[in-house]
Amino acid sequence: MKNNKKIPVLRCCSKCGLPETYETIEFDEKDVCNICRSAEYKNESIDWVERKKLLDALIEKHRGKSDYDCIIPFSGGKDSTFQLFYLVKEYNIKPLVVRFNHGFMRETIQKNNERTFKKLGVDVIDFTPNWHTVKKLMFESFNRKTDFCWHCHTGIYSYPLRVALLHKVPLVFWGEAQADITGYYDHLNDEIEYEDDKKFNMLRTLGITAEDMHGMIDSPEDPVDLRDLIPYTFPPVKELIKLGYCSVPLGSFIPWDYKKNTEIIKRELGWEIDELEGVPTEINPHGEKIECFMQGTRDYIKFIKRGYSRVAQINAFDVRSNRLSTSEAKKLSEKYDGRKPPSLEIFLEYMGLSEEEFNKIVKGMAIPPYDHDFDAKGDAPRVWDFDQWYREDNRKK
Amino acid sequence: MIGIVDYGAGNLASVHNAFERIGEHSEIFEDSKLIDKYDRIVLPGVGSFSRAMHLLTSKGWKEAILNHINDKKPFLGICLGMQILFESGDEKGPCEGLGVIKGKVKLLNPSSYLKIPHVGWNNLLPSKEHPVMEGIKENIDFYFVHSYRCIPESKKVILSECDYGGKFVSSVSKDNVIGMQFHPEKSQPVGLKILKNFSNWDGKC
Amino acid sequence: MLKKRIIPVLLLKDKRMVKGKKFKDFKDTGEPKTAVRIYSAQDADELVFLDIDNNSSSLGNLIEIVKQASEECFMPLAAGGGISDINQVRELLKAGADKIVVNTSCVKNPSLIKEISKEFGEQCVIGSIDYKISNNLREVWIKSGKLNTNLDPLEHAKNLIKLGAGEILLNSIDRDGMMEGYDLEYADKVSREINVPLIVCGGAGNYMHLADLLNNTSISAAACASLFHFGDNNPIRARSYLKNLDIPMRMLK
Predict the structure, then answer these.
(1) Which of C34, C226, C245 to mutate to test the interface with A (most CBs of A within 10 A)?
(2) pTM value?
(3) Is residue A314 domain-shared with residue A237, that is, in the same domain?
(4) How many domains, chain B?
């Protein structure tokens, strides 16, 4: 590994190790971050007994009132699988499971989902948006934000609410609370998070709504039908309010513990973990982010911009739940994060970009003071199902 | 029902919209004779003290407002609407205010490098408790935009201060009257919370 | 203590938002009505709407956007773009704007500033100054950067303040949209010599640019557009980043 340039040392949380370039992170006088403090409050001061009572009441309020008791948006990852399992088993509810297919599903997840749905016995709606539109959206959001997952962020958080309106089901359950991940929300506020229009506009859209996006990608040479953006458009708030919608994360009512949750679904549903590009399986035994084959490229982009990535994030959760020490976390993150993933090649093909173009665009949006050295880290190995992933080469010959 | 006084010198739409947002019905009204229709009154205000007083006096508002206050009904003055509650203002020479609270209004005089007007987000330093300020934490910022400040004669009316190169009074309360130098209708969630508290306030403290 | 402000600027053209470089080559940056919702959800410190069309129907569009913004977000709103008479000011204020941004009229009809500040107060007027450097001299340009007035920006600012401007918005045309940082030294100089709040615009590309500007104790606010349109950035993240550098930023919770 070459390392000729001096990479600026980032200020990091003295507990979880996440750096100053992590979105919404704030350090206190002891250099402990706001997300760690929020986690402490979550573990020590929230009255989870009271919260569970609220959940009981919420479910009973809606039970039997519509075609379904609730909508459960579902990706098949560990969180959505747990939330489905928990609600069905604990409350014996009749949910409508809604899956928004971002286009990058993997075999293990598909098998997990089939097993989950058949074991639990639930109705499922699976929606796959137009790939031609998705490519345009990926390209535009990558160029403007160096985040090509706009279609996924907006689709996942809009589409299930459309289904809720269609079936007149006001109650929608999501998984973990945002307060577990970032500082946009904080457990210290001791309140239920709502997955409402404010949250959607605040952090799901990347600052671009479907109405914005249409104008950006529509052109006389290549017109885009406004209807193609419906799946990414948050439904009219007036209609949601009329429905009496209540869209909440389960993580506001029960103390979310990723590891415990995964052990439960492994045991009860035979849920299987998978390899993740760039992350050794021994660091990821609870299967974080295994539901998308573009995850490796997403994580790589994050590292180029911010100087940390998936291993650091997984370790941060483990440090906060006292399963890993700060120094061990740091060692592992430095060793494994930032390696170039094989999926990058697929992404470049989809987008018709060269690696030089990609590097320039991403580095151009780096968060200072991080200054990425493309020669500093090596390559991540391929994962087992790489050859199954959809290929489409749009680069100029 | 909340009445918002339209005397020709206030950003009324914002105040009205803010109440709508929190589910409280409010009406903007121009005829001072209708003041009894409302169980609580909001007096907004932007511009100059003397012009505001001229407009209030010429349209019969002075008497109407004083009657409302004497009837012990809740009253909220925002920004200039708080300043004119005092006895006198000071732009271009002294000018008489409503005299509901003893004291005067003078130009802000912060330490040297600080600019006037005081524009932007600043936090309140509470002096006493009040139902309208319930749930508002000390380090939260509110939106201010003003060049003048209120100097009450009695410290008892001071509800909160604010630091801008020295402390000045950022809100006052006296019986059923409350005045805020900052703009709750422009202070997003925390401002809307204060307006909600005001909507539920019985006028006692 | 008073906090520093980060102010997104929304340029309006043909009912869309746009952003250019050096006041040219405008690119579509979205639909203003939904942008308002986003900035409101992100609790932006303040918003500035500038109509760069300046034709007979564009004022109507501006008023409509301001009205919607006023109904949906409860933060300070400033609006401007081709403002030339007091009736336009009245309409914008009635629609819900708190401050009016006046640029070309500051030069063509300076008494308008006096008129606005007399009727509505000084805090209602933001004197906006666009400037370019040529032959090492900074000069004020008007009409969206098309006409050179040969005026010195600092002297011009002082005049506007005498006329009644409550704030000054200083915008570097050379740095506009380039995302290479603000014209720091000059901004610092202007801020030290005027006694009203200074909002600096033109050049922000990352949070460090904001930090470099706001670390100067006398500059009140950083205005930006490209930073949010062409970067993985938003006002919430910006505030957190700057707080970590001990820059006093707004506290919401």
Answers:
(1) C34
(2) 0.95
(3) no
(4) 1
